[in-house]
Design a protein that fits this description.
This protein has helices spanning 11-33, 36-43, 47-53, 57-81, 88-102, 106-118, 123-144, 148-166, 175-181. It is mainly α and 187 residues long. The N and C termini lie far apart (44 Å).
């Protein structure tokens, strides 16, 4: 290729770019408050091109939710690989640490929260959230060797971590925040 020849991106590369951009847009305003025009502007492409890559906003949001669950799974895999010891407790602790670092990315955390809220009324989003959790729960169960109770506790703590981080509980020194934040790791 000469210096003046420009390499065009493939549809798959553009799709990835739109997905990464859409995470920020949906994190900012949620499923209901974000338009495909918002995503197109943020990605520097036309709305028509967004529709060429995704048939509608729902499909785009579902793809974003799936992308976020993929990132969660990768984070848990990294945590599992870094576990010090082979006990369920060691694996779950390492995965929890990795997840706490992951949700320091506020956009990912916000997309997860928006997806859970939208799943109440949007069947396609509900199915994406269910499928994502099914894969992640089964991964955690298999990688940790934990009991059902241990896996449930892991996810309960993760949900509490979402709450603590989303409301900035660490910024308030009060008995109720100390109760909620005790033992919760966040970055």
């Amino acid at each position: 290729m000469s210096a003046t020849t420009r390499r065009l991106s493939t549809a798959e590369e553009r799709r990835e770019t739109v997905l990464r951009t859409a995470i920020g847009a949906f994190a900012s305003r949620g499923y209901f408050g974000t338009t495909t025009t918002d995503v197109a502007k943020a990605a520097g492409i036309s709305q028509a091109y967004v529709y060429r890559l995704f048939p509608n906003k729902e499909a785009l949001f579902v793809a974003v939710v799936e992308y976020c669950f993929t990132r969660v799974r990768e984070s848990l895999e990294d945590g599992s690989a870094a576990a010090r010891g082979s006990s369920a407790e060691a694996a779950l602790s390492a995965m929890g640490e990795a997840y706490a670092r992951l949700i320091a990315d506020q956009d990912l955390l916000l997309v997860q929260l928006h997806a859970q809220a939208a799943s109440v009324s949007e069947p396609a989003v509900r199915e994406a959230v269910r499928a994502g959790y099914a894969r992640v729960v089964e991964y955690v169960r298999g990688a940790s060797g934990g009991s059902d109770e241990q896996v449930q506790e892991f996810f309960a703590r993760g949900t509490l971590c979402h709450l603590v981080v989303s409301m900035g509980a660490e910024e308030i020194d009060a008995p109720w925040t100390r109760t909620l934040t005790a033992g919760i790791r966040h970055y």
